[in-house]
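Reopening this ticket.

The earlier resolution said the output was attached, but the attachment link was broken on my side. Pasting everything inline this time so it's all in one place.
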Amino acid sequence: MASTTNSMLEMADNSPSADRWNGTRVLLWTLVLIYGVARVGQAYPDRIPMVAIVALHVLPALLFALVHGALRYGVRGILIFTGLCIAIGNLTENLSILSGFPFGHYHFTDVMGPKIFQVPILLGLAYIGMGYLSWTLGVLIAGDIRKPLAGHRVVTIPLVASFIMVAWDLSMDPIWANFVHGWVWHDGGPYFGVPVSNFLGWYLTVYLICQSFALYLRRRPAAVSPLPARCWQLAVAFYGLCAAGNLLVARPSGASAITDATGAAWDVSGILGTSAVVSIFVMGAFALMAWVRMMDQIGEPTGKLASRARASGG
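Inline output:
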């Protein structure tokens, strides 16, 4: 038994994924740090152009998803995921702007920069970065990273990943609609001017993306490569940083209430407080569950495990 364990751990330690991870560790850490700086920068919207703040929110997560995803699913796999995000995300966003389904009636302002049709390019790209992080946490929580994607997990992982993504939107949509004015909800809504249909639409959109990707992976189990523990830790830490960054949102100067497009007034402290509560107790809970499940499935980095196994096996 000891010799079998030794050989399995040595194979994991010398796998192509481990080699690729060693070559990209600095890049992934750099992207996490850039994102962290961007979240600090959002506390100074009067000093930094809003388009720059938006870009620094979106692009590091996008690049992280492409690099991390290529390690796990290969270049073809992460390109499939990217294509699904762009196609489904932009389809539902444009459809809702024109018809009100599935998110509700709204339009984007010019705050987020250039658009394709009715949707800002950066918003479309945001689906990739946050969608991938949500998928990864969903895999850790509802799946088993040591086994091929099969059985009920083909459905349960997309279901969980969609909840994780919607938690992010719950934390930030009222802020981006009311403080940043990135978009305008024509008919308002009960959640600080945001309609409930928005979150149902988000869930549907992300579920379609993740379910399509799960079906792709089920047919191609060989496309999935094992990753070192630190690679999984970085993904969970990135999502946790997304949650922590919401606590640094700047309060609009001189305003105690914000008025939405329907004329309804919303308390600024209520918006910030609710964002903080969702970030800590919903997003934070997902990050903690993913971390615990990751440690259950991986434990220590494979190099340490292999060393211990070799020592115990003689």
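Reporter confirms the inline version is readable. The chain has one domain: 2-313. Residues 6 and 308 are 9 Å apart (CA to CA).
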